[in-house]
Amino acid sequence: MALRLDVDPLALLAASFLAAWFLVASAALGAAPPTQVAAGAPPASSCPGSNLSPRLLAVGESLEAEIRGGERHAFRLQLPPGSFATARVERRGVDLVVEVGPEEKPSPRIVDTFQTAEPIEFSVLIEHERCVDFVVTPRLASAAATSYRLEVLTSRPAEPADTLRIRAEDVVSAAVALYREATADSLRGAIERLLEAARLYEEAGAVAERAGTLGNAAVIAYALSEPRQAIELAETAVSLQEAVANKEGAASSHLNLAVLYGTLGEIEPAQQHHLRAIALAREIGDRRGEATAINNFGVFLGQNGDRQQALVLLEQALAMRRELHDSAGDGATLASLGSFYSQLGEPQTAKEYLERALLLFREAQDVVNLATTLNLLGRVRLDLGDTKGALEAQNEALQIERRSGDRRGEAFSAQSLGEIAASLGDHAKALELFQQALDLQRALGNRRGEASALHALGSSRAARGESDEARTAYEAALPLRVAVADRGGEIVTRLALARLLRDRGDLAGAQREAAAAVDLVETLRTKVTAQELRAGYLAGFRGVYDVLVDVLMRLDEKESGRGHAAEALAIH
User: Fold this and answer.
1) For labeling, which of 15, 284, 342, 375 is most exposed (least CB within 10 Å)?
2) Across the strands, what pairs with 96?
3) What are 348-385's pLDDT values in tens digits?
4) Of 406, 440, 446, 410, nearest to 264 (Cα)?
5) First to last CA, the chain
6) E-strand stretches of 115-167
7) How far is the C-alpha of 365 from the C-alpha of 48, rounded, in Å?
8) pLDDT value of position 369
9) DSSP for 277-339?
């Protein structure tokens, strides 16, 4: 039942480099119609207090069945009193839940997981009645037809720790329900439930389950923009998983840690966790996990300057996800590619990728990924001159983020709306929105986001003619860009500072900043080997060279004979 952090493609935008997660959308479970029996199933005698006519299953038995929204497939296990059994339901595209126990009071246990793609594994304890009933049903009454595989895995005499395991499963299911509500309070409640479940698993001696539960709590802490708490939880999870040789769980935790450290700008540990996640996924043949790890590493490399290798990895991840029919992963990689092409100065190509991703996320009612992609699309529409479309996308994203308590996303949306206001000449409104973004980013400890908001404030101050305040903002942003190895952002800020200094008459300072920006562009350009990509990349940074040439020519007018003009001609 592990959640995974999937790098937000916003990380590839030069102005922000925010990272986020791709989680399951929240949606309400529709009202259930009358009980139905799985097709072809012989009814079993009723357990006391049950209204079902279920199919009888034996330990070790498995079956395949088709189901659609509104249907309920009922099953029964008959075992000696004092038995403990486990079962698994593998879902194929549609989100299912399992209801264990009688339909009447006391109400059945609802067993659910955080991710639709993962199987539902659950336990049952048969105490006095010699049988237990359970129902498989789609979570949404409107769900399309799908198939699933059900298997009764094990049965053995119950042990004292089994009661603790079932209590822990129930607490986890309560956490899933809170998580699906997708509000700030419900997410905090989900973390509390998961920590309670982890304590129960620890008491039961269930190391792997405890580790997985802490890993899920880490992802939700990240969703609440508590990265340090998330890292602490994920580090504990990976230690437990490695102690019991749980390679699948360890790979997932390394993947999460890579994203978390990358968000904080701690580059070296982020890279090591990326590589470890990929290696473990390949070792155990987890193709879905490998695709996610490759996608995230591609975004990470693009964020840190190796754009050619980033493109190779993102295309590889997209091919793998399509081979696996992983529509959620497909959408995530499409969004990453959209952001990638935006960074390369190809907004029309970026728009096409993002709109394809948006369709997948709307179809899946995946509100978190939907907000992320709307943010990206708003930026790209603005680049294409579609101000109205940009505002529509950003406002929709902001509404989603505020409903879900996503402060990181809210900060990004506030900054994006500020940029739209600035493009329309409303710099007073832009400053208000940029300050909101800055306050949120500082509260979150997100240095990349803080640098981006400071840069945006500097740009608006400069547009208002407040050059002293603009310089202060740019100079506050620059060391943050350097500290987190945000090379694209560093180029943007050095360029803005060079222009400001030039206009103030400080040509030496302007030359210093413009030359440093050109050096960075040249370093990054060498990593883009495909000619068609290199052209777009250079076009995106043409202004860096133009500013340096302009400054050198102005210096030549003041300091004739010192070679400034020749240096400018050499640049062109």
Assistant:
1) 284
2) 138
3) 999 999 999 999 988 876 777 888 899 999 989 999 99
4) 446
5) 57
6) 120-126, 131-138, 146-157
7) 39
8) 85
9) HHHHHHHHT-HHHHHHHHHHHHHHHHHTT-HHHHHHHHHHHHHHHHHTT-HHHHHHHHHHHHH
146 forms bridges with which residues in the sheet? 67
pLDDT tens for 262-283 read 777 677 888 899 999 999 999 9
Radius of gyration for the chain, computed over Cα atoms and rounded to the nearest angstrom: 27
Question: Rounded CA gap, 489 and 10, in Å?
Answer: 13
Angle at 9 between CA 461 and CA 362, to 5 degrees: 110
* Cα 88 from Cα 227, distance rounded (Å): 33
Percentages of the chain per state (helix, strand, coil), in multiples of 5: 65, 10, 25
Where does 48-119 show beta strands of DSSP type E? 55-57, 62-67, 73-78, 83-91, 96-100, 109-111
- What CA–CA distance (Å, rounded) separates 270 from 227? 13
What span, in angstroms and rounded, lies between the C-alpha atoms of 139 and 149?
16
Average confidence (pLDDT) over 375-402: 92
Identify how many contiguous H helices and E strands the chain contains and give both numbers: 21, 10
Rounded distance between C-alpha atoms, residue 443 and residue 410, angstroms:
13
Give CA–CA dist 508/250, Å, rounded.
Answer: 52
Residue matched to tokens 């992963």: 329
Map tokens 């009358």 to a residue.
Answer: 34
Instruction: Give how far the C-alpha of residue 377 lies from the chain's centroid of Cα atoms, to the nearest Å.
Output: 16
Q: Are 349 and 545 in contact (CB under 8 A)?
A: no
Q: What is d(CA 259, CA 231) in angstroms, rounded to the nearest whole number? A: 10
Q: Are 117 and 326 spatial neighbours (Cβ–Cβ below 8 Å)?
A: yes
pLDDT at 57 over 50: yes
Residue 108: both structure tokens together: 């059945």
Rounded to the nearest 10 degrees, the angle between the axes of helix 447-463 and helix 467-483 is 160
The pTM score is: 0.62
Beta bridge partners of 63: 150
pLDDT at position 8 over 50: no
Q: 122 is written with which tokens?
A: 């659950």
